[in-house]
Amino acid sequence: MMASEFFIEDPSLGRILVRRNARARRLIFRTDDEGSLVVTVPLRSSEKTIREGIQTLRPRLEGMQKRAADKQAVRQITPSFRIDAPDFRFWSEEARVSRMTVRQQQGALVCYYPAGQQFEHPQVQQWLVSMIEQSLRLHAKFLLPTRLEAMAQARGLHFSSLSIHKTHGRWGSCSSKGRINLSLYLMLLPHHLQEYVMQHELTHLVEMNHGTRFWQLLDESMHGHSKEYRKKLKKYDTNVFCLKQMD
Length: 247
What we know:
This protein is an alpha/beta fold.
């Protein structure tokens, strides 16, 4: 039985994570948060075929790694870093506190820090990202289920379950059993792009593939704006810095 996940070591590209997926029809490459390459492949793809694909796309993959490294280099939460999304806000304030702390407010997370606080330390950065992600998850679990259910009812559709996950590289997914997964990072998107993602997954309840009928149904649900929103969504990525990258 073929492993669903395994690694390929490449002399110049480094370790590449390979993931087999029953819905994949071709090799799809992306980079994770650390800039490492991940490739999704059809179930029966041989390692030889995957390596040939890597070799063919090598210049493009090297470019993807470089862009990921460039973005990673500037991703840092500083005292001036803000998130101003419709459903979630984050900012930092200097305060008379002995150590850095965060507090939940309605629709927001505020970081209070003492004078002289060093933000650039890796452990501080990791803690801040973790706190933001925890808050995003809470807000997502409160808001997204109601919105998804309303959209499903309006289309006469039914999903079996909804899960909110910290997924990177994709905004959502839908299984053949009607289980929908949504990324907690949806909370960083404008409402019309949140709707696009959720309508996309709901459409998979009718069409599991991305054939012509799928796109027709999705476009109907988005009142003719699906192509426009799909293009706009590509300007964002699934992490707490996605709005910062739009500046």
